[in-house]
Design goal:
The protein is an alpha+beta fold. 42% of the residues lie in helices and 23% in strands. The strands form six sheets. Strands 1, 2, 3, 4, 7 and 8 form a six-stranded antiparallel beta sheet that branches. Helix 10 (274-318) packs antiparallel against helix 11 and helix 17 (572-581) packs parallel to helix 18 (600-610). The termini are far apart.
């Protein structure tokens, strides 16, 4: 029989190539003769074209004779007749309809069928398109899930019975306490074995009635923390026994729906031994510390002695008469190289002690955004239009570049999820003056770089805006987010002396603005740039503040060699006096950070208040101090520094002042 759709020249190709299993039958009920079948249907039913085309549908595809309740043919026939009668598609409920296998047997299958009437030019139904989806795996999974639920229900009943028995026979002191009143709701029999009080004597009585007076206040603090939302606490206190004695008890308590569920142990004997054990452990720790210190100092002394040997030997050789220029240069280079190795060694020691900022660098925020844009496009997908806006002039910042890129990516992913994978995302970088008031903080003046991430997604509700930066807080469904992305962003911003602001309108979108302190443009030199020769200071006067006289004299002499005039102050108070005595004398302040009394950072802040236009350079070998307190917009020179590095940072300040 010819196909009713054969007049359509595209029909054979479309029908046969379709990935959905389809069968075309004539509207010749009750036979429903098969007129065409596509490859997907043949593959799904393990049949050949010859075994179906030209045959009555239910003769070619009978019910499983071994299934006495099979309804496949009856329901399918009814659906096709309904489609022919109504002239509209008829979707059947999931239908069990077993298929014959090549060996003549039957295999269980479940289908999701749709029967669509095909009409000729006059509107008469001439055929029915039978289209199916194999849902066998789904049906089996649902059946397995129902069986699993039944099994779980049985297990719950069993576990409840077991918990009841465990409550009764456990040697642990188990209890349920009302968090509002502090009274025992339930206690298990183990309490009587330890304290002598029966459950009937304890239930309905406040825990404080059983505590030693000295422990009541501390236990009240614990209860207050649990009422305020602490998820779990471990604590110890002393409880009275019925015979007038007392015992140390160790608690593990978890609050839930106004009740405190606790498991308690008798640790009296252990606590009585705690003092003597603590003394022994402290002695052991001190011995281990001394052993570690001896090992560390021995290794450091060995390495520094090697370095000092090279330096001392080179100095002695330089003092020898009649040295030619090549040998003199070789010995000088040896001293310089050895000093660099010594600097690296101290840096490694600081890193070991976790007192060094390991990855700060000065870079152009706009250039970094351009570099990471390709990654963001990949993460957001093709249905999100990404636009990046970068100014012509560089926007230099001092930060951990990896953390900066991660913050941009985290904000972009947050925007992607808010847009549900489709929309517009704009990321812009630009300079800005000051940070506005954010989260009850006062505005902050200064030069900053603002990075804005704007989406046109669902927005953030007012109740969630105040919590989005909390670690582990997320509005996403379980399994689609950890709630740590924005926490990383605000942590990075705060650690970099910046901040982040969020503005959102539900249904309209969200804008995150990341503020980071802006560096002077010259602070970042491209990798591989040829170092400029040192230049003189053109008579500029520098106030050097350094509590170490040797380092101070070196700085003074080095600056004089570079053409600067200098004066040395040994502490912050003396430096302020020098500035007060001759206000116009000094054009640059160069101060150590770590000093007795007023620190270099405190001095710099006071000078910035008194003389806002005076350039300030800070220097320190204790990089952790700046990591903890921030740079506050001042230039920084790390110790140890070379003459060239000293010259460069001063030239930057001179150039900045000339602007």
């Amino acid at each position: 029989m010819a196909s009713p759709l054969s007049a359509d020249t595209d029909y054979p190709q479309v029908f046969l190539a379709c990935a959905s299993p389809m069968l075309l039958v004539a509207a010749d009920a009750p036979d429903f003769t098969v007129t065409d079948v596509n490859q997907a249907y043949l593959a799904a039913t393990m049949r050949t074209r010859e075994s179906l085309v030209g045959r009555a549908l239910f003769e070619a595809m009978p019910d499983n004779p071994d299934d006495p309740v099979a309804t496949g043919t009856r329901n399918l026939r009814s659906s096709m007749e309904q489609a022919i009668a109504s002239g509209k598609p008829d979707r059947m409920a999931f239908q069990k309809y077993d298929i014959t296998t090549p060996n003549g047997g039957f295999e269980e299958r479940w289908w999701d069928p749709v029967n669509t009437p095909i009409k000729d030019a006059s509107g008469r139904v001439t055929a029915v398109l039978h289209q199916v989806s194999d849902v066998t795996a789904r049906i089996r999974a649902e059946s397995a899930l129902r069986a699993l639920n039944a099994d779980l229900e049985s297990q719950i009943i069993t576990r409840s019975r077991e918990r009841s028995l465990t409550w009764t026979v456990s040697s642990e002191l188990l209890s349920v306490i009302d968090l509002r009143t502090g009274c025992f709701d339930r206690v298990n029999p183990a309490w009587a074995a330890v304290l002598g009080w029966t459950p009937q004597e304890m239930e309905g009585v406040a825990l404080s009635e059983f505590l030693l007076v000295d422990d009541v206040d501390a236990s009240k603090v614990i209860f207050d923390r649990l009422r305020d939302g602490e998820p779990m606490l471990k604590f110890e206190n002393r409880c009275r026994t019925k015979d007038g004695d007392w015992r140390w008890l160790s608690w593990v308590a978890v609050p839930f729906e106004g009740k405190l569920y606790s498991s308690t142990r008798d640790v009296h004997a252990t606590r009585l031994q705690a003092d003597s054990l603590a003394v022994a452990e402290d002695a052991l720790r001190q011995a281990q510390k001394m052993e570690a210190v001896v090992q560390l100092t021995g290794g450091v002394a060995h390495d520094f002695n090697n370095l000092l040997t090279v330096i001392r030997g080179s100095v002695d050789l330089l003092r020898r008469p009649n040295l030619d220029d090549s040998r003199r240069a070789r010995y000088i280079d040896a001293i310089g190289d050895t000093a660099d190795r010594a600097a690296k060694l101290t840096a490694q020691l600081l890193a070991f002690a976790r007192r060094q900022v390991l990855k700060p660098e000065t870079f152009d925020a706009g250039e970094s955004l351009n570099e990471v844009a390709a990654i963001i496009r990949t993460l957001t997908g093709s249905r999100i239009v990404l636009e990046t806006i970068v100014p012509d002039e560089p926007c230099f910042i001092l930060a951990d570049k990896g953390q900066f890129d991660t913050a941009i990516v985290n904000m972009s992913i947050n925007a992607r999820d808010a847009m549900e994978g489709e929309g517009s995302l704009t990321i812009a970088v630009g300079p800005i003056s000051g940070i506005p008031a954010i989260r009850s903080h006062a505005p902050i003046a200064g030069d900053y770089v603002a990075v804005t991430v704007t989406d046109d997604g669902s927005g953030i509700s007012a109740e969630h805006v105040t919590r989005i930066f909390e670690p582990f807080f997320t509005t996403k469904v379980e399994g689609q987010g950890t709630g740590l992305g924005l926490s990383q962003v605000i942590g990075f911003a705060k650690q970099s002396d910046g901040d982040i602001q969020v503005e959102s309108s539900p249904g309209k979108g969200t804008t995150f603005t990341l503020y980071l302190p802006r560096m002077m443009d010259e602070a970042a030199e491209p990798v591989g740039k040829i170092e400029l020769p040192t230049v003189d200071g053109e008579g500029i006067c520098v106030l050097v503040v350094e509590d170490n006289s040797d380092v101070g004299e070196f700085a003074v002499q080095a600056l004089r060699e570079l053409g600067y005039k200098t004066a040395l102050a040994l502490n912050g108070a003396d430096a302020l006096k020098e500035l007060e005595n001759d206000e116009g004398r000094f054009q640059i302040l160069f101060s150590d950070v770590v000093m007795p009394g007023m620190s270099g950072l405190e001095l710099a802040q006071e000078v910035r208040r008194l003389r806002p236009a005076l350039p300030i350079i800070l220097t320190s070998g204790y990089s952790h101090v700046l990591a903890q307190n921030g740079r506050h917009g001042f230039e920084l020179l790390h110790k140890p520094y070379s003459i060239e590095q000293l010259s460069r940072v001063f030239r930057k300040c001179i150039a900045w002042k000339a602007l």
